[in-house]
Fold this sequence. Notes:
Helix content: 40-55%
Low-confidence stretches: 1-36, 128-146
CATH class of the largest domain: Alpha Beta
Number of domains: 2
Radius of gyration: 21 Å
Shape: globular
Oligomer: single chain
Strand content: 5-15%
Amino acid sequence: MNASRRLIRTVSAATALGLGAVTLTACGGSGSGNEKDGKVNVVASFYPLEYLAQQIGGDQVEVESLTKPGTEPHDLELSPQQTGGLTDADLVVYLKGLQPAVDEGVQQSGAEHVAEASSYTTLEKHGQDVHGEEHGHDHSSAGGGKGADPHVWLDPVRYAQMAEGVGKELAEADPAHKAQYKKNTETMVKRLHALDQDFKAGLRKKKTDTFITTHSAFGYLAERYGLHEAAVSGIDPDSEPSGARMKELHKVAKADDVDTVFFESGASNKTARTLANDLKLKTGVLSPLEGVKNPKSDDYFSVMHQNLKSLQTALGAT
């Protein structure tokens, strides 16, 4: 780390934390925590990007997620320590448009190496049901333009493109381990393409294409595998839908032989159960993978396979 960059980091930390906090850090704090062990300090905005950085970086990186388990990513507010940590990072990995506080923090950080995940793939506008009506899913600042859906990691193919981009940026930040990052990236991409094949094979014999969710997060997954997502509400899984919207979903469920109403893991199932009870349907869980409750037992791949099993059951593909 050169002297000028160290000075910039110190000044930024003083601004974010206050002179007293910087004094504590200088006396006995950890700073970046990586000058002693030599690891690359990576700050990731939330779980899917944290996972990519961990898998690609391997034992050469120390990854910190700005979004802690159990925290709603969309509503994240950065602490002064986290704001200072963005400046101190060797690499920042984030998805523009998903978390406004992170967008602002990255812009102000002056971080030398930044991997903005949406720039490695294409974003599209989702939030339309099978009848072409839009329902409140707006991410006006996302990288794909007004109304672009940021939940791109739920498409394994696009997630693989993001992995390749993160791998290249990590190699730029730490050229000494470029070969290792390239190898790890290739392994990750192969696993994601295998997952894509699992979904294609697993849903090939589906009896219906339509599924209902309370959270409009599965547009990319639906698009990839020829499915149709009809969402009760938009970005907020706890928001109350209108009476007109519920009537529309009744029509969708009957017209398309819908079996299950899905609610998001970790969110209230009140709306899903109300709709399911009215239509005498089942309820089920789909994870948007914005976080993982227990990273020691679950990861991106295990949760995606759980999603696949849930969809197979609901769509009659078992």
